[in-house]
Amino acid sequence: MSQYKVVEILDSGYKLVINAGANQGIKTGNRFLVYALSEHEIIDPDTGESLGYLEIVKGTGKVIHVQDKMCTIESDVYEANPSTTVTRTKNPLFGAYGITEEQSSSKAHIPFEYPKIKDFAKKI
Question: What structural domains does the chain harbor?
Answer without folding.
Answer: 4-78+110-123 (2.40.10.410)
